[in-house]
């Protein structure tokens, strides 16, 4: 009998960002990458695969922790040779992602860090899909005012077992919303007019990263673009079952 999966509860995010402009934003369940395959008859019963799922979680958490702490060798060891990464400030190979993160850290400034929720994993033979709720915290300066930006969404991974070791084959972020606040309470915060030209699912993050020298792609999966979320899920399903 196929293992039953508990429903995820949506945790509301607070902040100052406008609501997404789409008529209906996807629910939390609809933006879990693993739900894209849970009802597919090709998915094997997950009972008895807990050890494999645990090994997948271990490498995913190790990579994110290594990124936050600047442990670049450990971070690099988590990626498969042909891994691809697509997040706000970077699209490219896993190896280039690590080197870009290392270079970004070497330039100084306040590093970003991640809050990671429980990781959902499904396994099929030597491949796995995983996802989790994620809040990315980043500090910078906007219009000469030190600010904090918190971007909320879901991290989606593909993992592959190579030579008896699970490695990250792909990592994508789905963006829900973000908020911005002055580091010093009560400090005046005047946002540039260009903030309104950005996607509502990651507009403050996009403006801050742009000012830091990291232009953000306008076509990332987000709550205001359900079509891009479904395109990502379609890609995940094709990879998982191929």
Please tell me about this protein's structure:
This protein has one domain (29-241): Roll (Nuclear Transport Factor 2, Chain: A), CATH 3.10.450. 28% of the residues lie in helices and 31% in strands. It has helices spanning 35-38, 50-69, 72-77, 94-106, 203-211, 226-241; strands at residues 79-87, 90-93, 113-116, 120-124, 127-142, 145-162, 165-182. Strands 1, 2, 3, 4, 5, 6 and 7 form a seven-stranded mixed beta sheet that branches. A hairpin with a 2-residue loop joins strand 1 and strand 2. The longest helix has 20 residues, at 50-69. Residues 1-23 have low confidence and may be disordered.
Short description:
The chain is an alpha+beta fold and 242 residues long. It is 28% helix and 31% strand. Strands 1, 2, 3, 4, 5, 6 and 7 form a seven-stranded mixed sheet that branches.
Structural key phrases:
242 residues; alpha+beta; Nuclear Transport Factor 2, Chain: A; seven-stranded mixed beta sheet; 28% helix; 31% strand; globular; disordered N terminus
